[in-house]
Structures are given as C-alpha cells and as structure tokens.
Amino acid sequence: MVWFKNLILNPLLKSSSLSSSSSSSLHKVKPTFSTSTYSILTCLSRYTTDVSSASSLSPQVVQGSGLGPTKAGEKPRVVVLGSGWAGCRLMKDLDTSIYDVVCVSPRNHMVFTPLLASTCVGTLEFRSVAEPIGRIQPAISREPGSYFFLANCTGIDADKHLVNCETVTDGLDTLHPWNFKISYDKLVIALGAEASTFGIHGVKENAIFLREVHHAQEIRRKLLLNLMLSDMPGITEEEKCRLLHCVVVGGGPTGVEFSGELSDFIIRDVHQTYAHVKDYIHVTLIEANEILSSFDDRLRRYATKQLQKSGVHLVRGVVKDVQSQKLILNDGTEVPYGLLVWSTGVGPSPLVKSLDLQKSPGGRVGVNEWMQIPSVQDVFAIGDCSGYLDSTGKSVLPALAQVAERQGKYLASLLNKIGKAGGGHANSAKDMDFGDPFVYKHLGSMATLGRHKALVDLRQSKESKGISMAGFFSWIIWRSAYLTRVVSWRNRFYVAVNWATTIVFGRDISRI
After folding, report:
1. Which of 58, 323, 401, 507 is paired with 12 by a 20 to 30 Å CA distance?
2. pLDDT value at 50 more than 60
C-alpha cells in the first residue's frame, strides 16, 4: 500500500518545532519492544510526535502524535469532520489534485438514511445503505497525504489551525483511546446533529433512535427477539401484549416511514411466520401535533387513512416520562411497550454546543452566506450542525439530507475555486472574493407508507402551488428516485436485488 510505504520510508516530520520537542521526549522513554519496531512507530512521515506515557492496557502508541502543518510546495490540507450527507458530498467533489483530504469520523461510511427504516425489517440488507468513505473519495485510500481517521473531534483551536481528536476503540478492554492533533489549512465542520429528547427522563436509556446502521440492527434484533420470546411456554397474556407492542414516538417522515415498513412487515411476514402471536403484535405512533406537518393537508389525511388501514394506532399526545417497559403521556396515560423507537427531530450535539465559535439561533454553528464562520479564518460549517447567523437575515434551513448534500456540493466548488486561485493554504484567502453565495431551493419531499403506497410533494413550500400526489404511482416514484440517489452503482445493485428478493421470497426473519 502506497500510504504505508510512505509512512515507513519517509521519516521526515511535518513540523520542525514539533519534531525537535518530540526528539527530546523520545530520549526519556524506555521502549519495551525491539528497536526496529520502535523506529517504525515513531518515524512516521507527515506525522509529528509528542510522547507521553500510555495506559498499561493500551498498546505502545506515540501519544499526542498527529499531522503537522503543510509546508511550502505541498498541497494544502482540507480536514473534514464528519461523514454524513454534507461531508461526504464535499469530499466526493473536492479536487484532490489541489488538496489533500483528511476525514475524521467515528464511522468509516456514509449512511443512506432515506432507506434505513427498510433495513430494520429485512426489506434491505444493512450493507445496502452504507457506503465506505474510501469509495466516495478514492484519494483517501490511495494518496499519501490523504487519510481517514476513525476518531472523534474533541476540540478546535482556530487560532493555531489545529483539531484535537480522540480515537474510537468501541470500548475494547485491551485498547484505550488516545489523543492526537491535526493541522489544517481549511477546516469543514460537518458533524451533523443528534436526536432531540427534549430533556424527557428515560429516553436515552430505554428508546432506540433511528439514525445509524447500528440503531437499525438493534431495532431488528429486539423486534425478532420479542417475537420469539412471546411464543415461549409460560408467558402471560399481558406480557405477550407488551412484548409485541411497538411504539414509535414522532410523526415526521422517519417515524411514519418506519411505522409503515413495520406494519407491512407484520401483515406480509409475521402473520405467516409467527401465526401463534399474529393477533397480539401491533404498532402505535405517538405525535404531539399533526403527522407529516411539512406535507400538504390532503396528503396528511391520506397518510393517516393508510396507516390506520395498515393497523397503526395513531395517538396524539406528549410523552412525559419513559420507563423500561412503559411510557407515560402528559395526560397520565400509560403505554406499555416491547420496542420503543424515538424519532422526534434533531438538535445540536454536545460537541457543537461546546465549540468556542459563533452560534446561530438554536445553538448550531453560525455561518454566513458562503458557509464560512466569519469570526475565524479558514473554517466552514455545513449540514445539520450549521445555521445562518442573524446578521445574514436568512431563515433557518430545514434539517434535511437534500439541504446538507447541496451545501456540500456548493462548498466543494467554492474550495476548488479558492485552491485554483492560490488561496488553499492557511490564512491565504483573507481578502479573496468568494463569488455567489449559497442559495437553497427546495426540491420537494417524499415518504413511503408501506403496502406499496407513498407520498410525493414537489411544492417548494406548504403555501406554494405544485405537484403533490399519493398512492401506488407515488410509491414507484419514491423507489425510483431513491434508487438513483444511492451513492454507488454497487449499492444500487444491492438495493435493486434486495427489493426483488423481498417481492419474490418475502423478508428475511433471521436474528443474526
């Protein structure tokens, strides 16, 4: 591998200042392994070192290592925090003949979220909705100056152009996380958002969010486990009803689509495979206001009718408390559940809140019309973690995949323009004209309801005129649109085959 060969054969460090400090530190450390192994670990090209003592449970690592500042004659470095819709579209369109690309994220793939609900019930395989970062931007796998780091950002030093990171080790007992730093020429914050719990007690401990592949895997395993447990001898009628009660909180597109997929799974597959318990399993969707509030009134009424026809019980109410086996509404109603899926919108993550950067209303990272944070140099923010500052006079953009994707596309074009004009390196684009600002035009919304029914609303806003339809033809449009939007031809093939297999043979109900 080219990058590994360069790491070993080229021991030149990126920063002479950091290099000298690490050299003095190395003399104080007594290695517990062979000299050759120690040399390989410490003489990493493009990495700086700052050795400190490691945990006894950790492997021998160079604590505080990282990527030093780029030198004259080298390509400027763009560091992207996050691997969601915004960050991945940016990396895909970034010109790697101009920039080195470094991605820092706790996952090494992008999730195609519109189809995530389908994986919970076996309509699609999990790998069909996950696209590896190395396939989205091949330079990360091939170029010696571009990397992907499985890590979390822990802080940003905008004055020194540094990002502080901590490795992700999934809690392994033999491997403790360690810290490192990355110098950047341009930094793009695309950290996304996290599910909103509104401070309700017990949500994080008992509910499952539907935002990542591992969330879908957890939902699937718990759903199938409850189905099998409910068929065991000795279980009471009351407990059987609780185990097979699936509750979805939140009537937005994600909650409605999951409810529709789940009801379709129950009708088409559970009734055949788990005949003994088919009369006990049911779905409840809880929403404080109207479901699908961004859609046309006619489409909302159609969705309500179809969900009820599929057996979904719609409840209007506000969750007050969540316990391990039941939730309590604000009117005192107790709702027992075996599976609880929480889908009530998103808000800024604790990391975004903690960053010492300008904030927009709602706590997002504040940006101007060019997705730039005005108070610091060379830092941009896109996606759900960003929002317009009050000074721009622009309204808040919705937290949608299409918004994030188009922001990523716009910023990639802007950075390519800056790089070609010689402003790619740190502090070299202060007085540069960025050109046209970002303008968002809503392309419409879609949602599936199960049973080969879907909604398509192509109006730019609720008050605008335009095309809105529902039914089987809308379902065909929904599937066709998302099949073409899947990132790679490999995953498009996976999705098409999975859909065809499900139609012919039904869904897979194996609990793996």
Report:
1. 58
2. no
pTM for this model (two decimals): 0.85
Return the SS3 of 511: coil
Q: Exposure pattern of 95-131 as b/e (b: 16+ CB <10 Å)?
A: bbebbbbbbbbbbbbbbbbbbbbbbbbbbbbeebbbb
Among residues 54, 44, 67, which one has the least CA distance to residue 175?
A: 54
- Which residues does 367 contact at the CB level (< 8 Å), separation at least 6? 360, 373, 374, 380, 381, 382, 386, 387, 388, 389
Contact between 462 and 468 under an 8 Å Cβ cutoff? The reply is no
**The predicted structure's pLDDT at residue 453:** 93
What counts of helices (H) and strands (E) characterise the chain?
17, 26
User: Given a cut of 70, is residue 58 above it in pLDDT?
Assistant: no
One-letter identity of residue 113: T
How much is the pLDDT for 175?
Answer: 80
Give Cα separations from 403 to 92, 129, 313, 443 (angstroms): 16, 19, 32, 10
Concatenated DSSP letters of 391-422: GGTPPPPP--HHHHHHHHHHHHHHHHHHHHTT
Closest C-alpha to 123, from 310, 258, 312, 271: 258
Task: Indicate the angle between helix axes 85-93 and 401-420, nearest 10 degrees.
Answer: 30
**Between vectors from CA 137 to CA 132 and to CA 139, what angle results, nearest 5°?**
120
At 510, which amino acid appears? S
What pLDDT is attached to residue 405? 95
Give the whole-angstrom CA distance, residue 343 versus residue 283. 15
